[in-house]
Amino acid sequence: MSAVRFPPGYRIEPLRQDHRRSAFRSGQIQVDDWLASKALQNQEKHLSATKVLIDPVGTIAGFYTLAAAQVDFADLPPELIRRLPRRNLPVAVLAWLGIRDTDQGHGYGRRLLAQALRDSYDAGQTFPFVAVILDCIDDEAQAFYRRWDFRPLPGHKNRLFLSWSQLQAMVTGR
Q1: Residue 43 belongs to what H/E stretch?
Q2: Which domains does the chain have, with CATH numbers?
Q3: Could you tell me if 35 and 112 are in contact, meaning their C-beta atoms sit under 8 angstroms apart?
Q4: Less Cβ crowding at N or C end of the chain, within 10 Å?
């Protein structure tokens, strides 16, 4: 996975106070509410980091939020935990990803996910983790992430994971 390219005039930047978060509409109330009322506060508390895709006129076309967490050793599939210590293990969390409703179907979600995974990989060079996990808001979201090789986490209906080795192979081509 090389550098993620966005159309001319679009850019990725960290969420700031002056971004018009309340105007963002993805068609998912929970996603819109997160961006409008919680993303910046969580970022200021250093609980997560949100990056926004800004369109040529300066409005938010999409966003993603990353965080760090731990999961219990027993919650991970056997193929992932071989030779790992029996304790809570570090994971990267793709907490939120949203695309403005008028921009859906144009590949921005795919590009934002690629950028989020690239950011996770880069962070993993300094703060190692065993997998990227996410919780799907609905079946459509689950189908989207499954196309990116995310797999169900046993015992968690809407939680998917991508192992570090899969992420590394995506990013480095090895």
Answers
A1: helix 39-44
A2: 11-172 (3.40.630.30)
A3: no
A4: C
